[in-house]
Amino acid sequence: MSFLKLTRVWVPGVALLVGCTSKQSTPSAKPSESDFIAAFRQAHEQRDLEAMSKLVCWDRVTPEMRKLSEGSLKTAFDDKIADIKLTTKHPKGRPDVYVRNGVTYRFNLLVIAELIVDNAPRPNETFSTYDYPLGVKEGHYCIAQAAPVEGLEAQEPLPPPSLADQATQPLQPGKTSGGAQPVVVPAKTFLIIRLGGDVGLKTIKSGGNFSATVAEPVAVDGVTVIPAGSSAQGIVAKEGDYGPDVTLTSLTVNGKSYKISTGYVTFNQEVVFPARSEMKFEFVLPLKLND
After folding, report:
1. 278: which strand partners?
2. Domains in the chain with CATH codes
3. Measured distance CA(125)–CA(22) in Å, rounded
4. What is the spatial distance between Cα 286 and Cα 110, in angstroms, rounded to a whole number?
C-alpha cells in the first residue's frame, strides 16, 4: 500500500520549476504553490516519470514500495487533468498509519497541504478526484510517501480521539422540526469511523467482521443525525485477485440498528490498519432513520 494516489505528465526540453531531490542554497520561507503546480502539470502532460518522481519525497521508502508507487504514477498519465489546486484542508478519514509485515508505516514528511487533482472522466467512467499529501523538503513542496518508522516513533500511539468524539446533541430520528417525518441521510454522504480493533487480511480468517465507532458526527440540514460515538459494523472480504476490501454493513443510531450500503476501501493484503485508525466511507444508498 502507498499513500501516493497517482499523478501526471511533462514537456521535453523544458526545465522543471521544482524538484524534491535537488538542493536549494537559499530556501524560501514559504514554498511556491504556483511552481509546484506548474511542475506537476508539466510532468503529467509530457508523461515524464522521472520528472514526476522528482516531485515525490522518497526518504526511507522501500524499493518495493517505490516500484509500486512509480507504477501508479505511470498509470495516471492516461488521465487528463481538468483542474488542479493546492489547499491546506486535509481529507478526513485518510489512514495515516498502517502495519505491514510487522513494520509500522507513516508519512515520511509532516503533511501541511494537499494537492487536489480533478481528472476528466475516461470513456464509460465517472469524474475522479485525487489528493496528494504534501510536505516541505529543502524549501520545496514534495508529495509525502508512506515509509517505515523506527524506534520509539514506531511505538507511538495514534492521536487521542478528536473533539468530534465529544457527544453532540443529536436529532432524534422522526422528531424533525416538521413533526413526524423520518430523517434521510443522502447517498454520497461521508462517514468517518474509528476502528475498534486491528483490521487486515487476518480479519477474514476470523469471519471478516469488525466493529468501529463514528469518529465525527453526521449532520443533515445543519442538524446532527448520526452522533459521534455511534457504533458501526463492517466486513473484510477478498475475491479472487482483488482486495482485500473493507466496507461497512450496519450502523446503530440512538439504540436502533440499520443496515447500510457503503463504498469500500481496498488495501494490500499484507497491510494491517491498527485499532483506532480512522477510515472514510461513502453511503452508496440513502439511509432512512425511522422512528
Report:
1. 194
2. 33-155 (3.10.450), 163-289 (2.40.128.260)
3. 38
4. 36
